[in-house]
TrEMBL record:
Cross-referenced Pfam families: EMC6 (PF07019)
Similarity comment text for this entry: Belongs to the EMC6 family.
Protein name in UniProt: ER membrane protein complex subunit 6
GO biological process: autophagosome assembly; protein folding in endoplasmic reticulum
Native organism: Phoenix dactylifera
Membrane topology: Multi-pass membrane protein
Transmembrane segments annotated in the record for this chain: 37-56, 94-116
GO CC annotations, alphabetized: EMC complex
Positions of region (Disordered): 1-23
Basic and acidic residues composition-biased segments: 1-16
Domain of life: Eukaryota
The keyword Ribonucleoprotein belongs to this UniProt entry's keyword annotation: no
Amino acid sequence: MAVHEDGRASEKRSGEDGDDMPIFNAENLQSNMKSIYYSRTFLSIIGGVVAGIWGFTGLMGFVLYFLIMATASLGFAAKAKFSTHKYFDCWNRIVIDGFLGGLMSFVLFWTTVLGYH
């Protein structure tokens, strides 16, 4: 993951009222978000194939999807050494963003593989 700090950005910008605001490099933040998005999409596809091969139907397949996404969120946080403010501007970026984005890919591959099983 790309760190938002570089030579200039490692300093904190002081506001007029004395509050410190971290400086983020927009390119690095965007790169980190792309990595999470692509990882979640890949895990959705793999999870859909696994759910289809294992023959999960109905609610069990969706439970598997949410377990995969929760595990992915935990893995992303662990990869960031649980200091997400160093790589992202808020926790929502790593936990919630893209959580439902891969659902359509999951269902597509789940039902396709389940149909051949």
